[in-house]
Amino acid sequence: MRRTTDRVRKFTSRMQARLLLVFCVVTMLLVGLIGRLIYIMQADGERYAKQVLSRQSYVRGVLPYKRGEILDRNGIVLARSELRYRLVMDPQKLLLNEDKIPTTMEALKKYYDIEADIINNVLKERPDSRYKILLDDLQLSQIEEFRDLIKKDSKIMGLWFEEKYERAYPYDALACDVIGFTSSDNKGYWGIEEFYNEELNGVNGREFGYYDASLNIERIVKKPQNGHTIVSTIDVNAQRIIQKHIRNFNEETGSKNIGVIIMDPNNGEILAMASNEEYNLNSPRELEGIYSEAQLSTMTLEEQIEALNRMWKNDIISGGFEPGSTFKPFTVAAGLEEAIISKNTTFICDGGENAGGWHIRCSSKYGHGEIDLAESLMKSCNDAMMQIAASSGRDVFYLYQQYFSFGQKTGIDLPGEESGIITSLESLNASELATSSFGQTLTVTMLQMAAGYSSLVNGGFYYQPHVVKEIMNDQKATVKKIDPLLVRRTVSSETSEFIRETMYQTVELGTAKYAKVDGYAIGGKTGTAEKLPRGQKNYIVSFLGAAPALNPEIVIYVVIDEPQNVDRQDNSSIATKFASRIMTELLPALGIYPEGEIDYLLPGTDDNSDEVTNDNQPNQSPDNNAGNQDEQNQGQEEDTIESNQNTGNESNGQDEERPDDSQDEQSDDRQEEDDHTESGLGQDEEDFYTDSGAMEPIGDTIDDSTDDSTDDD
Fold it and tell me: Tell me, what's the pLDDT at 221?
């Protein structure tokens, strides 16, 4: 027993050597490992640190940018992004702290009336989720108290508020055609919202964070870049006035469609524009205000989408139509610019012209007799316009259509603009040239007409229409200033002066007298165009004018498509009276104050009476009135060019108004008598105006029963 104990206690030198060897090996391995760790920390420590941090409850949040505002020209907010909040829950974190679940549920029930069953269902169905929206679209007043409670009470866990922005339009439907709207992801649709979408949008920020060993969040924040603010050319007061009058007109009279545009002729700025169907920008996809419940219940999804697109469409820039007699100043201006006519040129109107195998009648069946250039506009004579166009020739006429941007887009900073349709140069034959001269067989947009007319009355300068004048950052510093863009010179100052003066006389003594506004000098032209198909007696009436007449500060264009509940649609006084009501309220609102009439531009009473006697010349030949051989030759040349194209041309030249009796439903015989003995244009009884002509193949008999729409504009 003793011997065994001694043997165990003995520690030989060999054992000591082995132990030393093991110790040395272990020591060397430890030194190597430490060295390796030091090397890794020095050479690649940052990458490993990120990997470690990424495994520690790494979270990331998006900080939304604020979409820029849209302002009117005076700084009034038309569209803005308002701060809203979401209440968000972290189910996983709440389950990791089960002792906090009862107090958290109790707080949600107390402040937001969220039942415990809802929270339990979320925890059961989505236990691994880190993000669940409980409430959305909360305002600051709804979250302040609860947000403070979350910060103070550690027993409430897994809840926080997330910021978001929601687009809001303070004036609902005001300027809806111009502003447009956005989707929930800040994508603009229609109007300024779409055209300037990139400028209005910003860049989201980022919030990076992770939980440390003590479950404290370490954050890194990259701030968002907010969008730019758009300063429009729209005047809120002007916009409110025209939309109010459109609503009143539709309530009192009614129309298939109606449009109004107000423009500054001296720089191309659009002050206001509106069409028939306005909609609430805060709920742009709702049709309840336009269609009844019964109608909506029968509409398919495709029909509802089509209805929405019609509602959103800006008819001012995308609705094409035949302008009628409002086109005549452009025909006259082209003739003056090319010295084909002068201010003193006279015309013999015998009631129509032969062109391309057609007899195209004037608005006055028995003719206006001998009239000068100014009277051709004041009395809205189709015959004179056809003579001017024939003398100009198709090359010149087509060239000036392009000068005034007809048949092409104006380039306005709004989406959806259409170019209209004009007859191509190759197809602009004698009959098409004749009817185009008074605004038929071509289509235009209201914007094209307003922009072109602006150049006629501002001295001859065509400015590109635009609805935005400045872009600012979120600190209100100017990023870009949009100056007026002069596109081209259309007419001389002398031609412009003649058009201004004649348009003033047209309102004072001619067919547009109902456009008068007490204390103001108004200039303008009426238009009446029969819609296709002809013969259905569906008309568009319009008024295109400027104020003040000789130094215009605004151009106004009013178009009424198929006025309802009226004796006759082809009564352009519907449009002039409507325009007068608008201008009566609009002009003072824009700071344009009464200046009185410009009497020195009006012909004397005796002179006017003499002119009346010349109107009763029903059988004068237009071929005999041409003042020079060039006009006759040009007319013959056009007829020759078109001699092979007489068949198949079914366009109707219908575009003039005639002074008539106040009794709109008189017999055809009475109309013929009134036409033959029409009074001077300044007489009070001229309270009914229309403008349309008619095309008949040469040799056909004109049926008098179709002539109740062949009046002057």
Answer: 80
